[in-house]
Design a protein that fits this description.
By secondary structure, this protein is α/β, with parallel strands linked by helices. It folds into two domains: 143 residues, NAD(P)-binding Rossmann-like Domain (Rossmann fold, 3-Layer(aba) Sandwich); 224 residues, Vaccinia Virus protein VP39 (Rossmann fold), CATH 3.40.50.150. Helix content is 35%, strand content 23%. It has a seven-stranded mixed β-sheet, sandwiched between helices. A six-stranded mixed β-sheet has the order 14-13-12-15-16-17. The structure holds thymidine-5'-diphosphate (TYD). Thymidine-5'-diphosphate binds next to helix 11 and helix 13.
Length: 395
């Protein structure tokens, strides 16, 4: 039974950057109600009414995992670790994006699944790529193609995007070898609660998993969680190690301790989420208050990183181009466009980060360290950053 605890209001699709602000474009902009609920039996936190994935994962999908040095390094490191630890003969990635993880493996061993056609085109040059949604039908097609099961299935920031978990895990069960391991990386619910990072909720994050919820889900599909890594990517994520029920792997003490920690933080209690919702509203009021104060002093504020997360913040807090002059982003195919719902222009940091800027809202707060390092010179001359995580503050 699911109970709603948070209402983030009318929201556009987080990645639906607009090409122009013509009447026709604005009339066609799609909005939905973003409400978040908690399942009192499985402890699963989810978007109450998910958007149809066919609307989301199109040939215009903007996110490129390779854009950040932090992510390139993180994927390289984990690819090496998994290869050494599990010595997989065959590897599959579900949601391969621009190939940032797979490029660390020999193409002969690899199959990629990527429903966004523009991204699939990028990986197809090197790897066998299926430009389709992950489901039972596709799992059978891949089995037929390879005539063998997979020892390693990797999926970062993808499983949380797929509304139908039953189909997802049944399909995984089809293709995972008996000794096989599935690795899932997704944002951590504990981090969201601790950081008050409500912007992890947007249309694509249908689920924000906890280890306790993941355990409950896997049980239904003859799968088992046996280890976990607590990782810093995307503002605090979890890497789940999953095997078949009768596999040799034993639950690690790291997993057992983490589950204890989640329970200590009451992730299995509805009251935790009600308290979180109150803090989210406070965060909105504090951010708006701070922006108002800065604007009264006639200072220029921009936003740094046209992230999906900031789509939630801007639309929930009603921040538009009256408050922020523009957003900078290094991603070429976001530049020249406008933010979803709030229509703030996006430009390249080469043009946008200059000495006319007084404050930059850290939309990409998950790359705080990388960005503050990159902007050392600008900070020296007086540029200040604003972040809403874990509390609204000036850095
Ligand atoms: P990402 O971390 O994927 O967040 P989300 O999932 O919420 O979209 O996006 C980070 C964005 O920030 C991406 O579009 C690239 C941009 N970016 C910069 O513009 N400059 C930087 O220095 C970094 C690290 C990222």
């Amino acid at each position: 039974m699911r109970k709603i605890f948070l209402n983030l209001g009318k929201q556009p699709l987080a990645n639906s950057f607009l090409n122009d602000l013509s009447k026709k474009t604005l009339k066609n902009e799609f909005f939905y109600n973003l409400k978040i609920s908690f399942d009192i039996y499985s402890y699963l936190v989810s978007v109450h009414t998910p958007v149809n994935p066919k609307r989301q994962y199109t040939n215009k999908y903007a996110h490129r995992a390779s854009e950040s040095k932090t992510m390139r390094n993180a994927f390289k490191k984990i690819a090496y670790k998994l290869n050494k630890k599990f010595k997989p003969n065959l590897i599959m990635e579900i949601g391969s994006n621009d190939g940032v993880f797979l490029k660390n493996f020999s193409p002969k061993k690899v199959v990629a699944v990527e429903p966004c056609k523009n991204l699939a085109k990028l990986t197809r040059k090197k790897f066998k790529t299926f430009p389709e949604f992950w489901n039972i039908k596709l799992s059978k097609k891949i089995l037929k193609y390879k005539n063998n099961k997979f020892d390693l299935i990797f999926s970062a920031n993808t499983i949380s995007h797929i509304p139908n978990l039953k189909e997802t895990f049944l399909a995984i069960n089809n293709v995972l070898s008996d000794r096989g391991v599935m690795i899932i990386e997704d944002p951590s619910l504990l981090s969201v609660i601790q950081n008050n990072s409500y912007d992890q909720f947007y249309d694509e994050h249908v689920y924000v998993f906890s280890a306790i919820a993941m355990q409950n889900i896997l049980k239904k599909f003859n799968l088992r969680l046996f280890d976990i890594d607590i990782i810093s990517t995307h503002g605090g994520s979890l890497r789940y190690y999953i095997c078949k029920n009768n596999s040799k792997y034993k639950s690690t003490s790291k997993l057992i301790n983490f589950i204890k920690l989640e329970k200590k933080n009451k992730l299995n209690k509805f009251l935790t989420y009600k308290k979180f919702a109150i803090k989210v509203e406070k965060s909105k009021n504090q951010l708006k208050e701070l922006i108002k104060k800065i604007k009264l002093k006639n200072k220029k504020i921009i936003s740094y990183g046209a992230t999906y997360k900031s789509t939630t913040v801007f639309n929930y807090c009603k921040i538009n181009s009256n408050l922020f002059d523009y957003v900078t982003d290094t991603t070429k195919n976001k530049q020249g466009k406008f933010t979803p719902g709030t229509h703030i222009p996006i430009i390249s940091p080469k043009i946008g980060i200059n000495n006319t800027v007084d404050y930059a809202f850290l939309g990409a707060w998950n790359f705080k360290r990388e960005i503050l390092n990159k902007e050392k010179q600008n900070i020296k001359r007086g540029l200040k950053f604003i972040s809403h995580v874990p509390k609204t503050h000036i850095i």
